[in-house]
Write a structure and sequence with these properties.
338 residues, alpha/beta, globular, ACP_syn_III_N, ACP_syn_III_C, Thiolase-like, Ketoacyl-ACP synthase III, acyltransferase
Length: 338
């Protein structure tokens, strides 16, 4: 699917991170110092953020409040709130409708969740932009958030030393500008999933299981899918990679991003990496990256390309104009007292 949506702009964005940190070196006693050193070297991740007592809703609320306070936007003017998460606070109601109440948004506000992971920010942008294009909304608050640490098997080094917790908030509004999107789906789920069945299979448990990831399969999917998807999107937009100042890719791991950069044939500065102190934060990784980049690193922002890939398996890419977007540094969220 490829589509161009005019009359929509990204007005502002920010992110929220738990204050609690886990340095991977602290896991040397469990996995061995050499293994930890190998993971750090291959992924580029040294520390991950841990939500602890914080929920997805708490992190999304912190990001949203930070965005509203910094931008001066009134909560009452928000027409819709969309939350992308795979770790909701409750099975029902969704995080979005709880945020509507906590943030003091209008009772006329549309509020719903989208169950998506690493490509979820692109799906969220698509849904938020469609709400605006449909004519019923002028300002849409898009939040992403996951507390993936709650799904990790303590004995699974592949995921425990990679995934971190975070949330983001993005404000989209009607106005000059536009978003071009490309989305691909390749179902099958077996390479990245968290089992849950209701009703549970015979003899099975109703408890949510641990996250399972086939890292090699995900890597192959990304390396084979991301470069042609970006090239197809740019062709659709009448652009080339030379027109793109920044490729904001899902922050999966450093090895994968460097490999993708080489396949795309672009210089290192065009593919920024910021996972060293936060880890792989799923659908929040792209907005977290954008909110963390020093402005001097990318003065030209008209044709920024975003690309998320992973769970599904799925892939989403977008060409966005961020020349008038306000970026606010991520806020850190303390633990909730017991």
């Amino acid at each position: 699917m490829k589509v161009g949506l005019a009359g929509v702009r990204i007005a502002a964005l920010t992110a929220a991170l738990p204050e609690q940190r886990l340095a991977l070196t602290e896991l040397a006693g469990e996995f061995g110092a050499q293994e930890v050193k190998r993971i750090i070297h291959s992924t580029g991740i040294e520390t991950v953020r841990i939500a602890g007592s914080l929920t997805t809703g708490a992190l999304c609320e912190a990001a949203a409040r930070h965005l509203l306070a910094c931008s001066g936007k009134a909560a009452a003017d928000i027409d819709a709130v969309v939350v992308v998460t795979q770790t909701p606070d409750d099975l029902m109601p969704g995080v979005a409708v709880q945020l509507q109440q906590r943030l003091g948004l209008s009772e006329h506000c549309v509020a719903f969740d989208i169950n998506y992971g690493c490509s979820g920010y692109i799906y969220g942008l698509y849904q938020a932009a469609m709400l605006i294009r449909a004519g019923g909304c002028r300002q849409v608050l898009l939040c992403t958030g996951d507390v993936t640490s709650t799904l990790l098997d303590p004995a699974d080094r592949q995921v425990r030393m990679v995934f971190g917790d975070a949330a983001s908030a993005t404000l989209l509004e009607a106005g000059e500008g536009g978003i071009d999107l490309l989305i691909r789906s390749q179902g099958g789920r077996e390479h990245l999933y968290t089992p849950w069945r209701s009703p549970p299979p015979e003899g099975g448990s109703r408890q949510a299981g641990y996250l399972h990831m086939n890292g090699t399969a995900i890597m192959n999917f990304a390396l084979n899918g991301v470069p042609p998807a970006i090239e197809e999107l740019l062709l659709h937009c009448g652009l080339t990679l030379e027109d793109v100042p920044i490729l904001a890719l899902h922050q999966a791991n450093g090895f994968m991003l460097n490999y993708l950069r080489k396949l795309l044939g672009v210089e290192r500065a065009k593919v920024p990496i910021n996972m060293r102190e936060v880890g792989n934060t799923g659908p929040s990784s792209i907005p977290l990256l954008l909110a963390s980049l020093p402005a001097a690193d990318w003065p030209q922002r008209e044709h920024v390309v975003l690309c998320g890939f992973g769970v599904g398996l799925s892939l989403g890419a977008a060409r966005v104009d961020l020349s008038s977007t306000h970026f606010y540094e991520p806020v850190e969220v303390p633990q909730v007292a017991a």
